[in-house]
Amino acid sequence: MTARTGLRITDLTVTYPGPRTSGFGRRSPITAVRAVSLDVAPDETVALVGESGSGKSTIARAIVGLVAPSGGAIEFDGTSLLNQRDRWARRNIAMIFQDPRSALNPRMSAEASISEAWQAHPEAAPEGVRRDPRRRRAAVVDLLAQVGLDPDVAGKRPTALSGGQCQRVSIARALALRPRLLICDEAVSALDVSVQAQVLALLVSVREARSLSMLFITHDLGVVRQVADRVAVMRRGELVESADAQTLFADPRHDYTKELLAAAVDLDVSS
Amino acid sequence: MSDRHPVPTRTTATMSDRAPERAQRSSAGPLRVRGLTIALPGQRGTADVVDDVSFDVLEGRTTGLIGESGSGKSLTAMALVGLIPDTGVASGQVLLGDENLLTAGRARMRQVRGAEISVVFQDPSTALNPTMTIGDQVGEILRGRGLSRRQARERAADLLDHVGIPDAAGRVGAYPHEFSGGMRQRAMIALALAGRPRFVLADEPTTALDVTVQARILDLLARLRDEDNLSMLLVSHDLRVMSHVADDLVVMYAGRVCERGGAKAVLNRPLHPYTDALVRSVPSVRVRSAIADPLPGSPANPFDRPTGCPFNPRCPRAEDRCRTEVPPLREVEPGRFSACHFAELAERTSDTAAEDLL
């Protein structure tokens, strides 16, 4: 059993090969993330905000092993995540993406999508779900209920579901292995406003019920305000400010944070 | 048009020579949508996905058309410029002066688009031609209106300058990929203004942009409305954007108008429970309440519209009547229209709901 220290990112640097300057020229590398250090404690929601190209999604991809960092360390509960084949990490870290339709296999029912994780990680599967279809169905229905979906969704494919329902299925799938860290990459950006509020409320309640660490990546400061305990602001690959959410919104220190807050388009009902 | 947006006199002469219908341009008036209904074939038969929609786009004002997925807002907007899918059947009227654009025919609609009503699309990187310079794309429209190559280039630079592109004269030769997302959207707006249209239809013009850029584009749209007396129909799902630029609001749900009125009035005191729920679920930077009491369910599908009021399955105050009787859009207060049986009680509803939150 490992200690619950949460996510700890130290001096993370990620570089991508840049464009070639000529047909035979060398690629000049682009630094997408430069020396970023960031912690997410258990039971904490940290929002990572920034504009496109700021490197926020690259950090998420580095955490789940989709890109290899060129420097720094990423640990979760004391275990390094830089060994990309680590099954433990894959089981304990789940990610939810922006577009729920493209994140789910269109040919698989919700039940198949959710239970696929149990085939890959039998050690984390509820008892008997791999052999007994009835137990599997019951476990899926239980997960669906936790994300506010009816049992009949289990047999449906993504095309038969609304965008909000698909995102709930994605969340159910992410929870199937009882992860300790949930990474949400623009997870509500593609949803309708009224559905967005539901899914945000769901994520908050799931995080509380399961004592998850949550890294919430978004460009929408209004959404950040609703869910975050702490906010980290990225700009051009660097972390420019990180503070308690209340403090950051009330008293931003960095000029860029001030600029972002000033530019945030809020509901204006003044006459 | 101010001195920043000059039009060579010869141009005007040439344009009226070649396009006699432009003589009517001075006869101002709103763009009136009356009983617009659009039937589209679906998996289980044809459905009116836009159903009896009426509103005006008034001159020099920005009308916001707001709704979620399936509300029919984009289809409604595209019907104004004759761009609905071939399988769709539109009825009702879209009146530009006395002319019904729904029956105008393809050739006439090609004239209307750009010259009378132009369109700014959501994603400028797909709407602009990647193989042509920005100047040539703006100039193409001007050349079509009889300007010489040199005049078109000068005027293109003027237009780019007008929409806030720095060093416009030096950048008419740039290609879209050399522009940032915000600059591309500015170029797109310049393109829309090139034909000197009376109406601009902007479909989610800031949705694909970064926060800081979004605010600047909204400022630009507001400035164009004021300086050029531009009439605009802004289509968006984002109430925050609407609250900054819209003068009038048309709220759509499941293909129908559920509320309509002055933007500030509608947002301050919605007279339809759906509008009320939308306002409450806006994630605001100032308050942490958007997720306190989320609306259940998903937006209704116009192919499978609930009977009675389409909002009834999600409505906190639905009664038996709402499940059977379609509420007509009616004037509840001067200038305020709502399609709710209980619109008069709306204010009380929002008060009690606010108490529930505490």
TrEMBL record, chain A:
Stretches assigned to the ABC transporter domain: 7-261
Taxonomy, superkingdom: Bacteria
GO molecular-function terms, A-Z: ATP binding; ATP hydrolysis activity
SMART domains on file: AAA
This protein's UniProt keywords: ATP-binding, Nucleotide-binding, Transport
GO BP, one annotated term: transmembrane transport
Sequence similarity: Belongs to the ABC transporter superfamily.
Protein's UniProt name: ABC-type glutathione transport system ATPase component
Automatic annotation (TrEMBL), chain B:
Segments crossing the lipid bilayer: none
Membrane topology: Peripheral membrane protein
Residue ranges of domain ABC transporter in the record: 31-279
GO MF term set: ATP binding; ATP hydrolysis activity
Key words of the record: ATP-binding, Cell membrane, Membrane, Nucleotide-binding, Transport
Disordered: annotated span: 1-32
PROSITE patterns for this protein: ABC_TRANSPORTER_1 (PS00211), ABC_TRANSPORTER_2 (PS50893)
Main location (coarse class): membrane
A Pfam family reported for this protein in Swiss-Prot or TrEMBL: ABC_tran
One of the GO biological process terms: peptide transport
GO annotations of cellular component type: plasma membrane
Keyword DNA damage attributed: no
Statement: the UniProt record of this protein carries the keyword Membrane: yes
Protein location: Cell membrane
Matches recorded under NCBIfam families: oligo_HPY
Record family assignment: Belongs to the ABC transporter superfamily.
Name this protein carries in UniProt: Peptide/nickel transport system ATP-binding protein/oligopeptide transport system ATP-binding protein
